[in-house]
UniProtKB/TrEMBL annotation:
Self-association and partners: Homodimer.
GO terms under biological process: formaldehyde catabolic process
Residue ranges of domain Alcohol dehydrogenase-like C-terminal in the record: 223-346
GO molecular function, one term: zinc ion binding
Naturally occurring in which organism (per UniProt): Prunus avium (Cherry)
Cited CDD domains: alcohol_DH_plants (cd08301)
Catalytic activity: a secondary alcohol + NAD(+) = a ketone + NADH + H(+); a primary alcohol + NAD(+) = an aldehyde + NADH + H(+)
Annotated protein name in UniProt: alcohol dehydrogenase
A Pfam family annotated for this UniProt entry: ADH_N
Residue ranges constituting the Alcohol dehydrogenase-like N-terminal domain according to the UniProt record: 52-181
Protein EC: 1.1.1.1
Family annotation (InterPro entries): ADH-like_C (IPR013149), ADH-like_N (IPR013154), ADH_Zn_CS (IPR002328), GroES-like_sf (IPR011032), NAD(P)-bd_dom_sf (IPR036291)
Top-level division of the source organism's lineage: Eukaryota
GO cellular component terms, A-Z: cytosol
Amino acid sequence: MANHQNSANGWSKPSDQRTTGKVITCKAAVVWGPGQPFVMEQVQVDPPQKLEVRIKILFTSICHTDLSAWQGENEAQRAFPRILGHEASGIVESVGEGVKDMKEGDHVVPIFNGECGDCKCCKSEKTNICHNFGVNPFKKVMNNDGKSRFSTKDGKPIYHFLNTSTFSEYTVLESACVVKIDPEAPLKKMTLLSCGVSTGVGAAWNIANVQATSTVAIFGLGAVGLAAAEGARARGASRIIGVDINPNKFIKGQAMGVTDFINPSEPGKPLHERIREITDGGVDYSFECIGNLDVLREAFLSTHEGWGFTVVLGIHPTPKMLPLHPMELFHGRGIIGSVFGGFKGKSQLPHFAQECMHGVVDLDKFITHELPFEKINDAFQLLIEGKSLRCVLQL
C-alpha cells in the first residue's frame, strides 16, 4: 500500500516516493455480489489517462444510493465486483493529459453528475445535465477506452460506480467529475457536497426557488430531505412540515428548521388532506425524498391548487409510471424531477462551498457518526437501521 502522509485537511507525497504515472496499490472496500459484505482488498489503481484525474480520498460518506446499489435493487446496479461510494473529498495525486483546471495537491470533491463545459446542455443555463458525463447508473468503465482503472492483484477488473468510486484510498475519475474547492475549506465537511446536501439544498434553491414566508412539506427526513429543509429555512420559509415514520427524525429535523411533524403511520385522514387542513389549502412546495409512488402522489396532492410545486428527489427503482391523472395537472400544480439539486458542479459548487463555510448552511448538523474506513460495514448498518444521517469514514 502506498505510504502517503495525510492529515484532516492536507496531504503530501514523500519526496522519495513519486507515484505519478505509476500503478498504485492501495486499500479499497470491494463488493463481490449483491448484499455481500464489503471486503477490504488490496487493489491496483492505474494512472489517469487523457482528461482524467487520480485523487487520494481522505474522507468518504454513505448515501442511500450506495445502499441500494450494494443491495442490487435494480438491473442498472448489478455489476460486480465493484467499488461503490460517491460522496467524498480528497487531494489530487496526478492528472492526465489535457487537464488544465487542476493540478497535483489541489483540494477537490468528486461529483456523480459531471460538467464537461462543452456539450449543448452544459452551455445552457436551463439545465445542469451534462450530455457526456451526466449521472448514468449503467456506466461501469471509463469513457476513454471502455476499461476500468481498478483491478485485483491478479489483473481482474473491478467496476466503477456513478463516475466516482470513492470507497478506495485512490480513485480515478474523468476531470469533468472533479471539482476544485477552496484549500481552506474543511474537507471532512466538504464531503457532504458531493451528493446529499447539494441535492437537497439545491432542490430548494435552484429547482423550487423557495420564497420567503412560503410553506413547505418534505416527505422523508433522511439527509436529502433534511437538506431540503435546511435550504428552505435559509430562504425564509415560514412553515416546514416534515413527514416520516421514524419519530427520531423529528428531533433532528428541528435543528434544520422543521416546524411541524406528521407521522404517516398514525391513523387518520390521508396525508394530503391533513396537510391541506393545517396550511389553508396546501403547501407552496413539496419535496418527495423517498422514492415511493404512493408517497409521491400524497406529496403532489398536498400542494396548493393553482401554484403548488412538487420536486421529486427520491430514486424510484421500479418501472411503474407516475400515479397522476393528466387532468390533475389542470388544477395548476406542477411537478419536476431534480438531479444534484440543479447545481452545475464544476462552475457552481465552489461558490456553494463558500456559502457553507460562511454558515449559510450548517454542514455539522448532517454528520451524525464518524468511523475509520475499515468500519464501513458498521456504517452501512447504521444507515439501514435509520440511526445515521451521514457517517463519515476517514481513510
